Amino acid sequence: MGLQHNIKVVVTDLDGTLLNEHHQIAPYTKSVFLELHRQNFLIVIATGRHHLDAMPIVSKLELPFYLVTSNGARIHAPNQELLFSVNMPSESVQSLLSVAVDPEITTVLFREKVWLTNKHNDKLNAFQPEVHYHPELVDFATLEDFTAIKVFFTHHKHSKLLELREQILEQHEGHFSHAFSLPYCLEFMEKSVDKKTAIDKILELENLKFENVIAFGDGYNDEQMLYAAAQGKIMSNAPESLQAKLAHLEVIGDNVQESVAKHLKEHILLPVTN
């Protein structure tokens, strides 16, 4: 019981975690988070999504929250003020893309206003129920400025992305931070970028520590924050390899069942009295 009472911060990923199969926040989940706010829990949303993509989705919670986006490359305060920002320099991205990327792989450069991509991808577009962050088709062979928030690769075969990751790491070992946010989504960021690092900055601002945190996630970009939290909870839809790597952590239900909200209601929220 003491550990439960020490929890003051709720940190959650979005896709595959807080959002349902339609990439939206379901009504029950919203009601639980409103109660978390009423009970003075600090709420942090930590996602691989770009902030222009994430904000319209999470704003439907209708409560204040910190927003960590692009795996930690951006931090926005509850009033939407930008608190932290880091980009990948043009020459670094150009060097990363100098490997022989299979033309079947969709490549994306996340930028402040648009995302640059080598091809139209319906599956990727479906992640935005409402389009606020627009794609722009480009020929990377003719691009002059490669500055980006992060570099994103997607393909339906995880094996292809594994091969690409090994190619990049072989030539750029230690130069970038990287993670699979989903088995078909491989992301590279500036070396210092990680969700845990960004959450550390927020906790310092709020005079709190990871011992006050319960965190939920389903991807390898959640690994460090799940490991650091006093309570790290893994979604049952997370890759088996991640579940095995963090075998000491509890596996809850999946995102379709609104398992984050159900767990918080059962184990973290104080009973509501009339």
What does this molecule look like?
It is a single chain. The strands form two sheets. An eight-stranded mixed sheet has the order 5-4-3-2-1-12-13-14, sandwiched between helices. Strands 8-7-6-9-11-10 form a six-stranded mixed sheet, covered by helices on one side. Helix 4 (51-58) links the parallel strand 2 and strand 3 (66-69). It is built from eleven helices and 14 strands. The model has no long low-confidence stretch (mean pLDDT 91). With 274 residues, the protein is of the alpha/beta class. It has helices spanning 2-6, 14-18, 27-38, 51-58, 90-96, 122-125, 158-172, 195-205, 223-228, 240-245, 259-267; strands spanning 9-12, 42-46, 66-69, 74-76, 82-85, 106-110, 114-117, 134-137, 150-154, 176-182, 185-190, 213-217, 231-234, 250-251.
Report a brief summary of the structure.
This protein has eleven helices and 14 strands. It is an alpha/beta fold.
Largest sheet features:
8 strands, mixed
Number of helical segments with 4 or more residues: 11
pLDDT averaged over residues: 91
Helix % is 25-40%
Shape assignment:
globular
Instruction: Find the structural class using helix and strand composition.
Output: alpha/beta
Q: What string gives the helices and strands in order?
A: HEHHEHEEEHEEHEEHEEHEHEHEH
Number of strands: 14
Major beta sheet, strand line-up:
5-4-3-2-1-12-13-14
Q: Quote the beta fraction.
A: 15-25%
Q: What gyration radius follows from the Cα positions, in whole Å?
A: 18 Å
Uncertain parts: none
InterPro entries: Cof (IPR000150), HAD-like_sf (IPR036412), HAD-SF_hydro_IIB (IPR006379), HAD_sf (IPR023214)
Pfam family, one: Hydrolase_3
Keywords: Hydrolase, Magnesium, Metal-binding
Organism: Flavobacterium turcicum
